[in-house]
Design goal:
TH1 domain-containing protein; 11% helix; mainly beta; four-stranded antiparallel sheet; nine-stranded mixed sheet; cytoskeletal motor activity
């Protein structure tokens, strides 16, 4: 397999990631039940303890679930109700990598049945993925914000979020009832299907206290 190495590395710190207003707990409306976790998750309850270098800020963090107040956005409620989803377990803005390697701002919604990717600028649903289709999640062993969701029957997703720990924990719990607990794999180099016909390798490294991500196209 030939490999084409990209010309640039991606370096992201938390100041570059999406900003948001934190919604109040207990938000509810239009028949949509929002399960906003206020559980204080400790190190030994998370799915990657003892494997990954952690930021101090991510330890013993209170998880809220909905960080964009889904019930206040009619277009989100309409999309979820059309699909028959009534329980939102996570909602936030993230950065998503396109097949060409560009970063796009997206809204990530996780319900008890599916993952939704939406465009916050056009209010359009870009993709809906059944939880039963998720095989595993790939993360590096560093304290970066990146994670990939692997969907063998379709194509995969590479995203970045300062709430990655919560997203992984939520998906592990949500998939238990949908298809059995999803695998969480750790490596500083892994492949993901960026599109139907394009496979990329993601490589992570830490240099002088900063981490960098390099995308390599496999042909």
């Amino acid at each position: 397999m030939d490999r084409i190495r990209s010309n640039r590395r991606v370096q992201i710190d938390e100041s570059q990631e999406p900003k948001y207003d934190v919604a109040e707990d207990g938000a509810e409306g239009n028949g949509m039940r929002l399960r906003l976790s206020d559980i204080n998750v400790t190190e030994d309850q998370e799915p990657f303890m003892g494997v990954k270098v952690r930021r101090r800020a991510s330890l013993h963090r209170d998880y809220k679930g909905d960080y964009i107040d889904v019930a206040s956005h009619p277009y989100l409620m309409k999309i979820l109700q059309k699909q028959g989803d009534k329980q939102v377990v996570f909602a936030d803005k993230v950065l998503k990598f396109t097949g060409s390697g560009k970063m796009k701002r997206r809204i990530l919604l996780i319900t008890d049945f599916a993952i939704y990717i939406l465009d916050p600028e056009t209010d359009a649903l870009k993709r809906r993925i059944s939880l039963a289709a998720v095989e595993k999640m790939c993360l590096s062993e560093l304290s970066d914000n990146f994670f990939a969701i692997i969907i063998p029957t379709e194509y995969d997703i590479l995203m970045a979020s300062t709430r990655k720990t919560e997203i992984v924990t939520v998906l592990v719990e949500a998939t238990k009832s949908a298809s059995g607990e999803v695998e969480v794999a750790f490596s500083n180099s892994f492949e993901y299907q960026a599109s139907a016909e394009l496979t990329k390798e993601v490589q992570f490294e830490e240099v002088e206290g900063l981490w960098a991500v390099e995308l390599i196209v496999n042909k």
